[in-house]
Amino acid sequence: MDGTILTPDGWVAGRIRYGTHITAIEGTAVEMPAPPFILPGFVDCHIHGGGGADMMEGAAAIAISARLHARHGTTAVCPTSVTAPVAQTEAFLDALAGVMADPPPGAARILGAHLEGPFLNPGKLGAQPPFAVPADAELLRDWARRAPLRIVTFAPEMDPGGALHAALDALGIRAQIGHSLCDYAMARAAFAKGAAATHLFNAMSGIAHRGNGLCGAAFAHAERAEIIPDLIHVEAGAILAARRAIPYLHGVTDATAGAGMPDGPYRLGGQEIVKAEGAMRLPDGTLAGSALTMDVALRNLVEIGLPLAEAARRLSTLPADWLGQTDIGRLAPGAHADLIVLDDALRIDRVVIGGERIDGVS
Question: Which residues of the sequence carry a binding annotation for Zn(2+) (predicted)?
Answer without folding.
Answer: 116, 179, 199
